[in-house]
Amino acid sequence: MTEHGVFIRERYFAISASKISSFAKYFLMRMSVYITRLIYHLADQISPVANFNKRWELRFGAAPHKIVTIYNGIDPHVFVPGEKPGATRGTPTVVAATNIMPLKDIETMIRACEIVRKEIQDVQFRVYGSKQVDPAYTKKCKVLIKDLGLQDHFLLAGYHNNPAEIYNEGDVTALSSISEAFPYTVLESMACARPVVATDVGGVREALEGFGILVPPRDAQALANGLVTLLKDIELRQRLGKEGRERVLLMFRISQSINAYLNTYKALMASHGKKSTKQNKDRIRQLSTEQLVSMWRDAL
Questions:
Q1: Which residues contact 133 (CB under 8 A, 6 or more apart)?
Q2: Whole-number Å distance between alpha carbons of 179 and 115
Q3: How far apart are CA 118 and CA 83, in angstroms?
Q4: pTM of the model
Q5: Which residue, among 179, 161, 172, has the nearest Cα to 197 in the 3D structure?
Q6: Which residue range is the domain that position 132 belongs to?
Q7: Closest CA to 5 of 202, 265, 208, 215
Q8: What 3 state SS string does 151-174 have?
């Protein structure tokens, strides 16, 4: 089983935000806990994309010996450092690659832009990502941009079909999410030698600590302070950019991720043998009624 986010945590977010009765929310949350416990029980190996996820998996019944972290990886031959294009050259620029949705907390990034502008008057923020994931939230962000008078400083640029170009448009990259697993955007920016200011959520620290700036979530002032620091300090920005790419080359190549999954499949095949197919299909049937009831009680 691979877990890129944390299933149960994401279900909590989604169910809490849904417009259904309290009874239905309670039922769906408990059902999600039950499903989580059952899947963790049946899995031979549980592979999160960051060690951060382990605390959730252990809490919901995963056996410690089953958990093997396999980090996300990116292709450093695709995401490479480049010169800023003419459109942003000479302009202090913050970029972000993220869909416009509440979980990404674009509102905090907009408020951080207002603070940064007081220090760096010509700063530009460019956010690349779909505006159709949550149209109501996109509209809310547009209203906030207008209310704060940031129309000339904060651009919701929409979908970009070549992510590798996004990071090289900017001097630094921002991530304002309130929840993440192990985001590709951090690795991609690091590979492009663009330092990142990111919220300290999920597995972000595992990639970024020592190679960027971590800030608390929902803290516009802290996010702004980090961005101002990097935008004003060219030497620091260049050093963190160089060291960030070196870290990606050392630890987060896509080839490393692929090999880890391949070795997992080979090991599981070798341990189960040819007879395992039918056995695996029958494993849930082999659980006793008492075990299933116990899991359900745990969920409640």
A1: 99, 100, 101
A2: 23
A3: 27
A4: 0.86
A5: 172
A6: 93-251
A7: 202
A8: CCCEEEEECCCCHHHHHHCCCEEE
Residue pLDDT, tens place only, 127-152: 999 999 999 999 999 999 999 999 99
Mean pLDDT of the chain: 92
Does 182 lie in the same domain as 288?
A: no
Q: How many independent structural domains does the chain possess?
A: 2
Model confidence band, residue 279 (pLDDT cutoffs 50, 70, 90): low
Pairing of strands 154-158, 124-128: parallel
- 205 and 259 assigned to the same domain: no
What gap in Å lies between CA 72 and CA 4, rounded to an integer?
9
Q: Tell which residue, 90, 101, 197, 94, has the closest CA to residue 150.
A: 94
Residue 274 has pLDDT above 60, yes or no: no
Residue 278 forms part of a structural domain: yes
Are both 247 and 258 inside the same structural domain? no
What was the pLDDT predicted at 266? 93
Which tokens go with 11?
């279900």
- What's the pLDDT score for residue 293? 65
The yes-or-no verdict on residue 276 having pLDDT over 60 is no
